[in-house]
Amino acid sequence: MSIFLSVAVAILLVIIVLPAIIIIPEAFTALNYFTFPVMEFSMKWFDKFWSNVQWIQGLGRSVFLAVVSGIIATVIGTMAALAMQKLGFRLKGGFMMLMVAPMIIPVVIIGASMYTVLAPLGLTNTLFGIALAHILLGIPMVFITMSSALSGLNPNLELASMSMGASPVVTFLKVVMPSVKAPLIASFLFAFVTSMDEVAATLFLSGANTKTLTIVMWENMRTAIEPTIAVAATFLIILTLGVYILKEIGEIRSMKKYS
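-> structure tokens emitted (259 positions)
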């Protein structure tokens, strides 16, 4: 049974990881089209990427939106998770469904709905409007992660802090926050990656002056498929892997600290 499970896991890993492994060498091809395996290598597509203002601006906007929406989604999602844990109110199940709804509802529907709401307000083709959509999509990741972390927190720690005269705010900052530091960082990183990879909702809200990296990739795939797209994909893969590596490092350090 263990051998069967090991083989199944190995197959799944290959299916999931193989496309990413294949696309990275394509960024270094000397040819003007995709081919596998890559026989001739060159850095010319990286040079073309960095010499194209559209690609550079798209990358900059994506990173900016990911950082801003990641921070705000982390704050809102953490506050919602705290409300679920600390406040006694009816319809908690309905509240939880509301918080995770953006994860369940197709992103195309969310994008269309956001466009319907933001277009009359003149917030389409603005970074603010796109950030709102990315925040909405990032909140469920934070809410689920922080709800799990807070449910495992020993309530006696907070009671002990408040019994010593600390206010609820001080207790949260000095006791709760350090105890859930690793999940909090992980929540931000999940929201960050969600924003970086988002395409469907951004298509409805972006315009000529607010194209993110994924939108630039999408438009180039529709017109002329060339290895510059592989360069952009490589940057996204590196950012995503870097985020998860940071998350794992944070969790390991947290485990060592409290072990």
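The two ends are 33 Å apart (CA to CA).
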